[in-house]
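> tool_call: predict_assembly(chains=two)
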Amino acid sequence: MELLSKLGIDVRLLIAQIVNFLILLLILWKFAYKPVLKMLNDRTKKIEKGLKDSEEASKKLEEITEKEKEVLVKARKEAQEIIKKSEGEAKKNAENIIVEAKEQNVKMIEEAKKSIEQEKVKMLTEVKSEIAGLVVSATEKIIAEKMDSEKDKDLINRAIK
Amino acid sequence: MEISIAAEPLFHIGSFPVTNTLVVAVFITLIVLIASLILKNNLKKVPRGFQNIVEYVMEAFLNLTDSITQNRKQTEKFFPIVMTIFIFVILSNWVELMPGLGTIGIRENLHGKEILIPFLRSSSADLNVTIALALVSVFSVQFMGIATIGVVKYAKKFFISPFHKPYFIGTFVGILEIVGEVSRIISYAFRLFGNIFAGEVLLIVMLNLVPYIVPLPFLFLEMFVGFVQALVFSMLTIVFLKIGTMEAEH
């Protein structure tokens, strides 16, 4: 006991100091730790949420850009296909037209040839018959001699040939 | 120059001696009360100035506690007591750095000799304070241990039946644990008291020998010692809290 008092240990003071410390603890708990901890936690949550949101937003943006790209590529492909198709069709059309025109040409030429031939034949026969008549009348006039018309004609025909 | 191990009573209320360390402790409490009230009323989502410092210190301590407990929930349970110990100890340690240490006081006649009783005395340089802190720390360990793992399991750490596996060795270890808990109070109290009291004596002696410049390095040293002791006290409390809330392994 004497040692304790020599060291200045006094139970009353000890209790007073403990009470003082507990009061300090209470004060700090109530006015400092609780509000500050709450604020820290709130802030942490808020920042976490913000980060998450921004991540999501950037992800979405990326997705959208990708989609955009895809759509563009698709559109370009389609346009090219359309152009190719129309080109092909146009070529085919042109060929068709050319072929038809050629065919028509050939046909027309043939027809013209045919009609020329016909005309020629017709003309020849006409010329022949006319010449025969002329000859007959001429000979008749020249000779003035009647012959058997049958015989006559026969004779002339042989002469023309 | 008179240096007494015991804190000197400034005056008496009835038979209750009001020592200078008690006055300092109450003073610290008042300052902390005012500071925390200011803090609480000015809490903002975006921290500024004082709030920044408080948040920084608290965050650092939370992380420190986290690194020992590995459990955020437990950290938040331990945090108030540990942080309060740190704040109180560091503030009372740094009281010795204030000007007026050992010089400003009242002269009193004691046993026919006139001695100076200083107003300022670091409250950690009083065994009453350090033992009080040690008691709070050790009892909070017991309390937290019982609250976390239950009375029976907690008691099993200290009272081990001699009829089971490690037999008398286990019982002996249990007794050693009890001795350890008690001796922890003494080691806590005397470590802090010894460091700060020695620092105070050193500073008073230095100030009396060479009043200018020479005491400066010792002031810095004492500042460092005060911080380290506060950190040691609170760190040990965290560690013992963690150990106390763990179940005994068999």
